[in-house]
Amino acid sequence: MRAPDTGGRGLFVSFEGIDGSGKSTQARLLFEHLTALGHDAILTREPGGSAGAEQIRALVLSGDVDRWSPETELLLFTAARRDHLERTIRPALAAGRIVICDRFADSTRMYQGLRGPGLRRCVEALHDLMIAQEPDLTLLIDMEAGTGLSRAIERGGGEDRFEAFGGDLQAAMRQGFLALAKEFAPRFRVIDGARDIDAVAQDVRAAVAERLA
Ligand code: ADP
Ligand code: TYD
Q1: Span 64-72, average pLDDT
Q2: Is 2 inside a domain boundary?
Q3: Could you give the C-alpha distances from 50 to 25, 150, 206, in angstroms and in order?
Q4: Residues near 11 by Cβ (< 8 Å), separated by ≥ 6?
Q5: Is 132 helix (H, G, I), strand (E, B) or coil?
Q6: Which of 27, 41, 71, 74 could form a Cys-Cys staple with 98, CB 3.0–4.6 A?
Q7: For 14-36, what is each residue's pLDDT tens digit?
Q8: Residue 3 domain-assigned (yes or no)
Q9: C-beta 162 within 6 A of ligand 2
Q10: How far apart are CA 37 and CA 31, in angstroms?
Q11: Is 44's C-beta closer than 6 angstroms to any atom of ligand 2?
Q12: What is the CATH number of the domain that holds 48?
């Protein structure tokens, strides 16, 4: 069963990148910037962004590394995304709003899709069946894996199940995200995240301004 179309009147912007790359910081700054300019924007995140999806978030982001298999994780993240789409993203887009989302389906392509043979194919199949929506613009905050991981560990917060997979997986993710940016080139912009917050924010604003124009 395919998900219904939104009519697509708003603008859907996602942030992607490895843990600690600065996505949440940049998503919040973009939201504040657009709101100050008078745009009608919402700031949301995955996993989460709706009441049910936030409950699933608590299940997937805490506990032992092997609490869920990659396949079960894929189902949980997809269930959370479907609820987030139905209740938060599609209504906002249909109302013409700008949706700023901290992670979306590209995170599943990487974090679940890279963890076993054949899993990327399962991710795409489930995505086509249950989600069938891509952002209009995806901002990849790119940086070397060690820097991102140490930022994420320093930040703390207890939602550390994925950080616990370690540096090698984060390095593979970084390369994977860069490959995705080529695969889906029309919607991706790659932004160098290894600079101060303001420099990164300026590039983010420029990419969104170009898309809004
Ligand atoms: P993500 O959402 O990608 O995991 P965050 O935005 O939470 O990343 O940032 C991770 C940590 O790094 C936070 O403590 C944040 O304050 C810090 N941080 C974010 N951007 C930068 C930057 N450009 N330079 C240095 N530290 C940063
Ligand atoms: P997030 O809170 O964005 O973490 P961080 O701020 O450290 O980047 O996301 C939490 C974790 O969930 C992150 O390690 C990536 C993982 N994740 C998946 O594995 N699959 C998914 O589909 C999504 C959206 C996130």
Answers
A1: 91
A2: no
A3: 20, 29, 29
A4: 93, 98, 99, 136, 137, 211, 212
A5: coil
A6: 41
A7: 999 998 999 999 999 999 999 99
A8: no
A9: yes
A10: 10
A11: no
A12: 3.40.50.300
CA–CA gap between residue 109 and residue 20 (Å, rounded)? 18
Global pTM value: 0.93
For residue 4, tell me if it sits in a domain: no
Q: Is the pLDDT of residue 167 over 80?
A: no
CA-wise closest residue to 83 among 187, 3, 1: 3
What pLDDT does residue 65 have?
Answer: 82
* Total domains, the chain: 1
Which residue is closest in CA terms to ligand 2's atom 21? Answer: 108
- For the cut 70, the answer to whether the pLDDT of residue 150 exceeds it is yes
Q: Whose CA is nearest to atom 6 of ligand 2?
A: 19
Quick one: which atom of ligand 1 is closest to the CA of 19?
Answer: 4
Q: By C-alpha distance, which of 18, 13, 20, 184 is closest to 110?
A: 18
Q: Is residue 166 part of a domain?
A: yes
Q: 20: domain range? A: 11-212
